[in-house]
Amino acid sequence: MFNTPILFLVFNRPELTRVVMERIRLMKPKFLYVAADGPRHLNQEDEENCKKVRDIVQSTIDWPCELNTLYRDENLGCGKAVSEAISWFFNDVEYGIIIEDDCLPSISFFRYCEESLEKYQGHSNVMHIGGLNWIESNTENLNESIYFSRYPSIWGWATWRRAWKKYDFKITNLDSYSNLKSIIHVSKNNLELDYHLKTFNSVRDGEVDTWDYQWVYSLFVNRGVCISPAVNLVSNIGFGDKGTHTKEIDDQLANREARELTMMLFPDEIKVDETLDELVSRVKFQKPKKSSDQVNSILKRKLSLAKSMFKNDDFSLSIAKVKALLRSRSGDKVHLIISCFPKSASTFLTKTISETLGLEYVFFTPSFHRVEQEIHEIELLKYLNTDTVTHQHFKANSNNIKILKEYGMKPVVLVRNLYDAIVSFRDHCLKETTNAWSMAYINAPQYKALSMEKQFDFIIDLVVPWYLNFYLSWKNAYKDFRIQPLIINYNEVISKPEEVIETILLYAYGIRKKVVISVPGEDTRFNVGETGRGMKILSKPQIKRIESLMEYYPEEDFSDITK
Question: pTM of the full predicted structure?
Answer without folding.
Answer: 0.87
